[in-house]
Amino acid sequence: MSQVGGIDVEIKKQSSVCKQMRFSIDRTSLLSTLSRVSGVVERRNAIDILACINIKAQHGSIKLMATDLDISIFSSLAADVSTEGEVKVSAHTLHDIVKKLPADLDVNFEDARDNIRSAIGVPSNKEIVFTSGATEANSLVMKGIAGFQHVISAVEHPSILNSACNPHIIPVNQGGIVDLLALERILSELKGNMVWLQLQQSISFFLLTLYP
């Protein structure tokens, strides 16, 4: 793994959704952009996804986006992208990490999966699932209920939304609260018993699994 001043910078992501994204970028430019984009993100947000910044690396640049549902901020930076990909990470955590790094250096981002696989002796044909941040744990749970119908709020974590097969999406208002009329309409069209699972969000909302 490439290092910056002796510090490895790693971003965890969903193995079932993203490739092992790798890119290198100037630390000063990245910090300036993170400061601007993360300004729309509250440090404590009841809706987890709104505490994140979306990073997309492709075609020699990275694109950053954050929103509070009222305002969205987009920015693009030139970067040396060796592997394209997209990930969502905590905006303020990433900002704080980059801020502590030495100035006038490049920051190298890459997935730690292969290094960990080698360090603990896991065969290349076996999958490693990172569960500390729940992102990949959520994906694992979703795989276990893949045969059912899913009703999910529009602001659920991407690890749930992206792992669901043809989900019914419930729209939300500007406060992140689900549209109950839309939920009622969706449920009226579905048949079966309902199981209520709250996987990620602390308030709004939950995942519904309907058994056939």
Give me the CATH superfamily of the largest domain: DNA Polymerase III, subunit A, domain 2
Spatial gap, N to C terminus: 47 Å
Assembly context of the chains: single chain
Which fold does the CATH topology of the largest domain refer to?
DNA Polymerase III, Chain A, domain 2
What is the gist of this entry?
With 212 residues, the protein is of the alpha+beta class. The protein has helices spanning 27-37, 91-100, 113-120, 135-144, 158-161, 180-188, and strands at residues 9-10, 22-26, 52-58, 61-67, 72-78, 80-83, 85-90, 106-110, 149-153, 168-170, 193-197, 207-211.
What does this structure look like?
A hairpin with a 4-residue loop joins strand 4 and strand 5 (72-78). The protein is an alpha+beta fold and 212 residues long. The protein contains six helices and twelve strands. 25% of the residues lie in helices and 29% in strands. The strands form three sheets. It has a four-stranded mixed beta sheet. It has a four-stranded antiparallel beta sheet with strand order 5-4-3-7. It starts with 8 loop residues before the first strand and ends with a strand. It has helices at 27-37, 91-100, 113-120, 135-144, 158-161, 180-188, and strands at 9-10, 22-26, 52-58, 61-67, 72-78, 80-83, 85-90, 106-110, 149-153, 168-170, 193-197, 207-211. The chain folds into two domains: 9-120, Roll (DNA Polymerase III, Chain A, domain 2); 135-211, no CATH class. The chain is globular.
